[in-house]
């Protein structure tokens, strides 16, 4: 499924709204929307380095994954 989506999105501008952060991890640009405003934007790695909202979401999602196992 991921390979099919990657193939469809290649060479196009695509807006993805995702709850699973793994969906946007390889995006060229990730925008974090909070209270109707873009609060942060950048690559996955850039946003993690900023230790902001995106980082908190990643940590929360990873913690949830650990609790499910």
Strand order of the largest sheet: 1-2
The fraction of residues in strands falls at 15-25%
Domains (count): 1
Helix-strand pattern: HEEHH
Shape call: globular
Residues in helix, %: 40-55%
Could you describe the 3D structure shown?
By secondary structure, this protein is an alpha+beta fold. It has one domain (16-68). It is 45% helix and 16% strand. It has a two-stranded antiparallel sheet with strand order 1-2. Helix 2 crosses helix 3 (53-68). The longest helix is centred in the C-terminal third of the chain and has 16 residues, at 53-68. The chain starts with a helix and ends with a helix.
Search tags:
single chain; 69 residues; alpha+beta; two-stranded antiparallel ribbon; 3 helices; 45% helix; globular
In short:
InterPro entries: P-loop_NTPase (IPR027417), Type_1_exporter (IPR039421). The chain has three helices and two strands. By secondary structure, it is α+β, with helices and mostly antiparallel strands.
Write the layout of secondary structure elements.
Elements: H1 2-9, E1 30-34, E2 37-42, H2 44-50, H3 53-68
Antiparallel strand pairs: 1-2
Helix pairs in contact: 2-3
């Amino acid at each position: 499924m991921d390979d099919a989506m990657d193939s469809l999105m290649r060479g196009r501008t695509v807006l993805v709204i995702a709850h699973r952060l793994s969906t946007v991890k390889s995006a060229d640009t990730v925008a974090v929307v909070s209270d109707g405003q873009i609060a942060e934007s950048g690559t996955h790695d850039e946003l993690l380095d900023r230790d902001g909202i995106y980082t908190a979401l990643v940590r929360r999602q990873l913690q949830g994954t650990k609790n499910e196992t």
